[in-house]
Amino acid sequence: MSNRKLFYLDGKVQHYAWGGFTYIPALLGLPPAEQPSAEYWMGAHQSAPSKINGQLLNEYIAAQPEEALGKAAAARFGQLPYLFKILDVKDMLSIQVHPTKAEAEKGFARENAAGIPLNASNRNYKDDNHKPEIMVALSEFWLLHGFLPENKLKEVLRTVPEFKALAPVFEQEGYFGLYKKVMEMPQDEVNTVLRPLAERVLPAYEAGQLEKKDPAFWAGRAIANDPEGMKRLDRGIFSIYFFNIVYASPGEAVFQDAGIPHAYLEGQNAELMANSDNVLRGGLTPKHIDVEELLKHTRFEAVHPHILKGEPIHNGQEQLYRTPAPDFVISTILLKPGDVYEHTATAPETWIVMDGEAVAKGSAELPLRKGQSVFAAFGERYSITAEKQTVIFKAAIP
Q1: CB–CB of 144/244 below 8 Å?
Q2: Residue 250 clears pLDDT 80, i.e. is over it
Q3: How far is CA 382 from each of CA 4, 202, 222, rounded to the nearest angstrom?
Q4: Confidence class of residue 229 from pLDDT cuts 50, 70 and 90?
Q5: What's the rounded Cα separation, in Å, for the pair 285 and 298?
Q6: Which of these, 141, 193, 200, 283, has the minimum number of CB atoms within 10 Å of its CB?
Q7: Are residues 41 and 82 in contact, defined by beta-carbon separation less than 8 angstroms?
């Protein structure tokens, strides 16, 4: 394998309860699954590493870091710094915040010292890395992203009758005070505050009278999908009203930095993040919620959502989505039949073919079709020749 740097990559399907049943199997050419297929992981994260040539990708990189990653990336990161995924979001994900690098290192060391097993349900830190991430929509996509600007949040607290009592909290204590209040509120009080709202929005949701840009739509869906129903209302419903509801059409992207609270609501996307699985949750989930840790890492500030459209590079054959993250960059390669894309990998690259047929030639020759993934190690010179209209998503390091 020594001189070869271009491989098919076998990723790992993750079966989380919120995923759809058909999108990922159809992409990968697999029969429909009995259980939901939520995410397809392409990477070297220790909990679900991909394989190349029958070898685990993390082991291949660990055996020859400079050859696989390049000197600079090997020195800076010591591992593949990103994790690439395809997501199929059928039901809303939990509201979540990701820690900074420094805080992840501290939290991981603290939980290790406390002897909390890595797979324990009350574990916050699965590794010592930060987790900025970018998603590119593959369908119409809806998400929650950061706190509403002040005037919009004041309007919500003024016009939603159940939230009027919270308006003075926001006036006096700002974003932090408001969020702390609802996250620390005893469950009985959460039920008392939210029940009239639930009784109002659920019938409207079930009758199909609400639009997706209206927080009542997602509150209605959260209640309709919750096995506890009206008995134990989820405090994440407050966040649906306090955060920006963002719509991205196919090809549009959203970047989430450390500390920005967010939740995916519906649709399919290609997601690229730092190589981490650290999540601090804030609701819409039966999983562990550590409110103290969540409040410590959330950025309590107005967020004005910024939709990234991508910029053309490589003579227009590629759309690049720039972010401040040093760990990763995502781009889309769009080729017409007969087009040839030529490149030298200045960093380890991971590709997935979303559509079409092509042939990649470098240190190996790989026919490509929809659903196939490829790993190109540092320094690989290759060409991709399209036989049909072809769309490839590519992860790399900036």
Answers
A1: yes
A2: yes
A3: 12, 54, 47
A4: confident
A5: 18
A6: 200
A7: no
The domains found in the chain, sorted by start residue, are 92-309 (2.60.120), 311-396 (2.60.120.10)
221 is catalytic: no
- Which of the four pLDDT bands, split at 50, 70 and 90, describes residue 2? low
From 123, 221, 235, 281, active-site residue: 281
Q: Which residues are annotated as a binding site for Zn(2+)?
A: 96, 98, 133, 262
Residue 244 one-letter amino acid: N
Residue ranges for the binding site? 96, 98, 133, 262
Q: What is the separation, in whole angstroms, between the first and last Cα of the chain?
A: 26
d(CA 359, CA 378) in angstroms, rounded, equals 20
Q: Which residue has the higher pLDDT, 130 or 347?
A: 347
Specify whether the CB–CB gap between 282 and 183 falls below 8 A: yes
Which pTM value belongs to this model?
0.94
As given in the structure block, the two tokens for residue 335 are 């080729």
Residues 256-287 have pLDDT tens digits of: 999 999 999 999 999 999 998 888 999 998 88
SS3 letters across the chain: CCCCCEEEEECEEECCCCEECCHHHHHHCCCCCCCCECEEEECCCCCCCCEECCEEHHHHHHHCHHHHHCHHHHHHCCCCCEEEEEEEECCCCCCEECCCHHHHHHHHHHHHHCCCCCCCCCCCCCCCCCCCEEEEECCCEEEEEEECCHHHHHHHHHHCHHHHHHHHHHHHHHHHHHHHHHHHCCHHHHHHHHHHHHHHHHHHHHCCCCCCCCHHHHHHHHHHHCCCCCCCCCCHHHHHHHEEEEEECCCCEEEECCCCCEEEEEEEEEEEEECCCCCEECCCCCCCCCHHHHHHHCCCCECCCCCECCEEECCCCEEEECCCCCCCEEEEEEECCCCEEEEECCCCEEEEEEECEEEEECCCEEEEECCCEEEECCCCEEEEEECCCEEEEEEECC
CA–CA distance, 129 with 273 (Å, rounded to integer): 11
Q: Which of 252, 270, 258 is nearest to 327 (CA)?
A: 258
